[in-house]
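Thread: quick sanity check before group meeting

JM: Hey all, I'm pulling together slides for Thursday and realized we never actually wrote out the predicted structure for the chain we discussed last week. Dropping the sequence here so it's in one place. If anyone has concerns about the input, flag it before I start.
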Amino acid sequence: MEQIKGLISARQLVFIIALSRIPVVAVFMPVITSANALQDAWFSVILATAGGLFTGALAALVAMRFPYQSLGSLAKISLGKVFGVGAVLIFGLYFYFLALARTRELSLLVVSTLLSNTPTWILAMTILIAGIYGVILGADTLGRSAELLLTIVGGTILIGFLLLFISGTEGFSLLRPVLSRGIQPVAVAAVQPTFEFANSAGTILALGKFCRRPGGMLKAVT
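JM (edit): ok, ran it. Output follows.
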C-alpha cells in the first residue's frame, strides 16, 4: 500500500481536518463560549477538549479497524447492506448541509468585512467551486496544502496570543472568580465546541481510507 498514489500520512489527515476547523475555533467558538461561561470559558474549553479526545479517538479506532475501506464499505461491513447504505446516505447528506452552512457563514463574513458590495451567492459559488476542485485534486494534494496553510495560520495565532500577553492588556485576574455561577453555564457552553469536535471526528471515517499508515491515526488524531 505504500506505493499507491493519492495516499496521505496520518499527520496530513489531521491537518486537513484541523484546517477546516480553524475558522470555527478562531472566530465562532470564543464568542459562543464566552457569552455563556464568561470568565469560566477556559473551563468550558477543557471540557470540550475532553469530549473531542473521546470522539476523535473513537472515530480513529473505527477507521483503523477497517483500513483502506471507503465509508460505504465500512458501513456495509459494520451495519449490513441495507442499514449501511442508509447510514452512508444520512452521513453524506448531513455533511453536505453542514458544508453549505459553513459556506454561507464564511460568505457572510467576507461580504460584511471585505467585499460589502459583492452578492453573497457569488462568494458562495466561488467557495463551492474551490471545494470541488480540491476534491478533484485528491487527498494527497489537500494534505500537502493543509500542512503549509495550517503551519502559517497556527503560527499567526500563536504570535497573536504571545503579543497579547506581552502587551499586558489581559491578565489571569480576569479569570476570577472561578465557577461563580456554578458548573451549569460552563457545561452548557462546552456543548457546541464538543459538537464541532464530533463533526471533525466524523470526517475521519470518510478520509481514513486515504491514510498511508492506518495504525498511526489514533496517535495523530489524539
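AS: nice. The chain has a mean pLDDT of 79. DSSP finds eight helices and no strands in the chain.
JM: adding both to the slides.
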